[in-house]
Amino acid sequence: MAGFRQEDVEIYYDMGEELGSGQFAIVRKCKEKSSGTEYAAKFIKKRRLSSSRRGVSREEIEREVNILREIQHSNIITLHDIFENKTDVILILELVSGGELFDFLAEKESLTEEEATQFLKQILDGVHYLHSKRIAHFDLKPENIMLLDKNVPNPRIKLIDFGIAHQIKDGNEFKNIFGTPEFVAPEIVNYEPLGLEADMWSIGVITYILLSGASPFLGETKQETLTNISAVNYDFDEEYFSNTSELAKDFIRRLLVKDPKKRMTIEDSLQHSWIKVIKRRNVRPEESERKPERRRLKTTRLKEYTIKSHSSMPPNNTYINFERFSQVMEEIAAAEEGLRELEKNQRSCGEDVTALLSIYEEKESWYKEENESIAADLSQIKQELQKAQALRRQSQEEARAAMLSANALKRKFGRLENRYEVLAEQMDSEVRWVEELVRTISAENHTRSTSMA
């Protein structure tokens, strides 16, 4: 790969603790030896064979790297360096240590509308920069929206993970089915041409969650979630949106539109009144006389949200994600009291076990599929080897037959050569006899001529 340093990354960086992992990548904290600056090292496992499903293809790695090289924005993670060895490509990235936006909100358990717009404005700024370069992220979700430092009054948002990002080119129709089901746009579900508009749908889902703690399309199964998305089946449940302004709901409605052409663009979103104003508008009359209550994210919805997000993850889930899941469960256990709450916890435990079993079954199925694929490859190689051995035996037999034929021809040629020599000697003898006869006759004729004279 052009531009990738073919050196040992540990010559220049000290590797530290593991920060997380994905299906084919591991992220570790590292420190640059020359400057002492801390970064995040993302080890991407390379796909060794084009027919294999293990690892990331060269084309996909180069696409992610090319996009990261092109972008430079305060709300987007930056690429510092790139190394490559026989098994991995190592991206040295900006260290974003503030954790996920989802975790930050779950810890707070409440969020005002003004705080939501502060976070959302940063997300929109980052996406606006990407879209200005015709880059679609295609995987916008709370897990990929990080905080640079959560222990400051106004945390800065950082968009991460450009593994499935694409540069949209005019005239090139692009279709794919990827992303996280809960956040994908209808055109992805329906395998239709994709563009920058898919990111705007994801922003609509994220905004819905920021304001309510509930997910608009999440179903009991992945299929139900995708069906809800395709049908744009959602509503503003009064239980979660009782204190939400009409401007905020209008913002969400203009993003959760099935037709991509009718969906708000990033420019439209930044110009929307809800984003532009500092103070919330459309406050209900009864709210103007009292301090608005802080809306609390529903812990039951957070729990469901976490379980579903884990069940849709790749087979090798990360420790950090299970740690977050455990923290949410502890908060639920602390908040729920009494017999009724204990009964709910019992049911939730059953759901957790089901979700974890589902993850295990997915992993087991994945390994089984890989084993079957390897077994099929080995069987094919064995058959090809047997064919090669059969051809080799056939060639050897044909060579022996040709050798025998050649020897027979050689013997026959020898016999013919001997006969030719015998015939040649006979011919020489006959020729000498004829020549002698001719001389004799000539001599007699000469004698006769002399005597007659």
Automatic annotation (TrEMBL):
<comment type="similarity">
    <text>Belongs to the protein kinase superfamily. CAMK Ser/Thr protein kinase family. DAP kinase subfamily.</text>
</comment>
<dbReference type="GO" id="GO:0005634">
    <property type="term" value="C:nucleus"/>
</dbReference>
<dbReference type="InterPro" id="IPR000719">
    <property type="entry name" value="Prot_kinase_dom"/>
</dbReference>
<dbReference type="InterPro" id="IPR017441">
    <property type="entry name" value="Protein_kinase_ATP_BS"/>
</dbReference>
<dbReference type="InterPro" id="IPR011009">
    <property type="entry name" value="Kinase-like_dom_sf"/>
</dbReference>
<dbReference type="InterPro" id="IPR008271">
    <property type="entry name" value="Ser/Thr_kinase_AS"/>
</dbReference>
<feature type="domain" description="Protein kinase">
    <location>
        <begin position="13"/>
        <end position="275"/>
    </location>
</feature>
<dbReference type="InterPro" id="IPR042870">
    <property type="entry name" value="DAPK3_STKc"/>
</dbReference>
<dbReference type="GO" id="GO:0006915">
    <property type="term" value="P:apoptotic process"/>
</dbReference>
<feature type="binding site">
    <location>
        <position position="46"/>
    </location>
    <ligand>
        <name>ATP</name>
    </ligand>
</feature>
<dbReference type="GO" id="GO:0005737">
    <property type="term" value="C:cytoplasm"/>
</dbReference>
<keyword id="KW-0808">Transferase</keyword>
<dbReference type="GO" id="GO:0043065">
    <property type="term" value="P:positive regulation of apoptotic process"/>
</dbReference>
<keyword id="KW-0418">Kinase</keyword>
<dbReference type="GO" id="GO:0004672">
    <property type="term" value="F:protein kinase activity"/>
</dbReference>
<keyword id="KW-0175">Coiled coil</keyword>
<dbReference type="GO" id="GO:0005524">
    <property type="term" value="F:ATP binding"/>
</dbReference>
<keyword id="KW-0723">Serine/threonine-protein kinase</keyword>
<feature type="coiled-coil region">
    <location>
        <begin position="371"/>
        <end position="426"/>
    </location>
</feature>
<keyword id="KW-0597">Phosphoprotein</keyword>
<keyword id="KW-0067">ATP-binding</keyword>
<dbReference type="GO" id="GO:0035556">
    <property type="term" value="P:intracellular signal transduction"/>
</dbReference>
<dbReference type="Pfam" id="PF00069">
    <property type="entry name" value="Pkinase"/>
</dbReference>
<dbReference type="GO" id="GO:0004674">
    <property type="term" value="F:protein serine/threonine kinase activity"/>
</dbReference>
<protein>
    <recommendedName>
        <fullName>non-specific serine/threonine protein kinase</fullName>
        <ecNumber>2.7.11.1</ecNumber>
    </recommendedName>
</protein>
<keyword id="KW-0053">Apoptosis</keyword>
<keyword id="KW-0547">Nucleotide-binding</keyword>
